[in-house]
Amino acid sequence: MTKTIQKKEESNPEGRPPKWSNVEELSGLIDKYFDSTKKEEWTITGLAMALDTTRQTLVNYEKKDEFLDTIKRAKLIVENGYEIDLKKFGRSGTIFALKNFDWKDKIETDITTKGEAVTTTPEILKRLDEMEAQIKKEMSE
Questions:
Q1: Is-contact 97 83, C-beta < 8 A?
Q2: pLDDT of residue 72
């Protein structure tokens, strides 16, 4: 049995051809998604599907200076929809979605006194021992 080896076609030296030829093309498709989809149904994956791509491709294109602002604007519109939903209804699913936009629901407490670090237990015990020794010394005099 003889194998035939075919010459591989010349590939694009820059990799896969761009999904969108320019920002205007992508922006138009994004606007079309928002215009044709109910506001309460806007999602990042919905946007990706409307663009015939994946969420990861959007993440990758967001790293390209040319597409950065356009994709950030689209993500901000979706994020704003979640924020409005949270304000109106307070749903836990909305909270989860916002966490994917780097929102946090943790409380941070600064444990200092006037900018100084709080004294730790070993330091307190040492000071108490010193005070006790001073009191004993004064009482014996």
A1: no
A2: 96
